[in-house]
Amino acid sequence: TSQVDWQQKALEEEEEEENLVGPVRPDQVTRGYVMASIAAEQRLLNEALSKMEEDEEAKAPKHEGWMTMIPDSKALGFSVAQLEEMQKNRSSFSKTDKDLSGDKSAWTDTPAEKAKKEREKQLGLDGGRKRKETAAEEMETTSRAASIIEQYNATVRPKSLVEIHQEQARKKSKSSKEGDNFELGSWDRSSITETKVRDPKSVNKMIQDAQNLNSRFGGGKFHGF
Fold first, then answer.
1. Where's the DUF3752 domain (predicted)?
2. Burial (0-12, 13-18, 19+ Cβ within 10 Å), 181
3. What pLDDT, on the 0 to 100 scale, is given for residue 177?
4. Domain match, 142 and 110 both
């Protein structure tokens, strides 16, 4: 019976709410009326905020699309393969070249859009997905540039003198290790420390020759004190 009474009371409140026009007395306030009032206030607040944003956007200076958009690589009349081929055939890479691919929002965003992105970033709405995509794009661009430079150096750029000498040294060391297979001799102490025996005639001849050295190198008389 309690459940039936509660349902009957809810139906009576709904019927009373349908007949209400304008503000109600405190003794007539029901839960549905309170919820409806809160929803109406929230709706009015959202409408006021959206109108303020529209007014700010209307007052902000605007530029035509062609003034802020960066031309795409396709608009230049060259494909990606043609651009890579042009980079290979260059004698040197220009330091002023700009990469036209990737995020162009830094050039095209208005101050209001930049402020909105900054608020979203502070609230954590930016997320990690965008950072991961940017890191993946940067890694892909870096690897592609490295492969282009490596291919250019291999086909066009001559080797430096240092690289030529290093290559020759590597080849020489490799050939010496592979071709010159020699065996180390055994070390004999007796053969190294052995003294040569001379006959008496050769010893006397060496002494005489040593005595004659004075006559050959003496240029004058020496007077001692």
1. 89-218
2. exposed
3. 62
4. yes
50 compared with 60, residue with greater pLDDT: 50
- Residue 97: inside a domain: yes
pTM of the model: 0.21
209-218 pLDDT, tens digit each:
888 777 666 5
Residues 76 and 137 in one domain: yes
pLDDT at 171 over 70: yes
Structural domain boundaries, residue 36: 2-59
Gap between the terminal Cα atoms of the chain: 154
Q: Round to whole Å and give the CA distance between 164 and 172.
A: 12
Sign of the torsion formed by the C-alpha atoms of 144, 148, 149 and 151: positive
Q: How far apart are CA 40 and CA 37, in angstroms?
A: 5
Q: What is the pLDDT of residue 96?
A: 47
Q: Could you tell me which of 7, 23, 26 has the C-alpha nearest to residue 15?
A: 7
Same domain for 79 and 53?
A: no
Kindly state whether residues 26 and 119 are assigned to the same domain.
no
Query: Residue 165 has which token pair?
Result: 């000498």
What is residue 95's predicted lDDT score, i.e. its pLDDT?
Answer: 46
The whole-angstrom separation of Cα 117 and Cα 94 is 34
DSSP one-letter string for 144-205:
HHHHHHHHHHHHTSPPPHHHHHHHHHHHHHHHHHHH---PPPPP-HHHHHPPPP--HHHHHH
Closest CA to 60 of 111, 106, 107, 108: 111
**Same domain (yes/no): 51, 124:** no
